[in-house]
Amino acid sequence: MNMGKLEKYELTISSNEIKSTDSRFTMDDLSLGDNYEFLDVFFINSNDEIIRRNKKKRERNKSNQVLPRLACQIFEKKILELSKKDRENFPVCQYNPSSPMIRGIFSSESEFKRKRNTIEYVGYHCEGDSTLFFYCWNIFSTLIFVKECLKRFGTEADKFILVYKDKDGENEAMESNLQIMAIEEHIRSYSDLLLSSKNIVFRGAPGTGKTYLSKQIAANIVSNGRTSDINSLSQDEINQIDFVQFHPSYDYTDFVEGFRPSEAENNQIGFTLKPGKFKEFIGKAQKFETEDRQDNFAQAWGKFFEAVTEAMETSQGYNELKTLTGKPMGNIVSYDNNGVQGIFKKGTTQYLNYNQIYNVYRGLPGVPEGGFDNYRKAVVKHLKEKFGLEDYIVGEVKNDKDKFVFIIDEINRGEISKIFGELFFSIDPDYRGIKGAVSTPYNSEEKLYIPENVYIIGTMNDIDRSVETFDFAMRRRFTFVEITADNSAQNMGLNEETKEIMHRLNNAIVDEGHLTQDYQIGASYFKNLDEGTLSIKNLWDYKLKPLLNDYFRGERLANDKMRALENAYFGTSED
Question: What keyword terms does UniProt attach to this protein (predicted)?
Answer without folding.
Answer: Endonuclease, Hydrolase, Nuclease
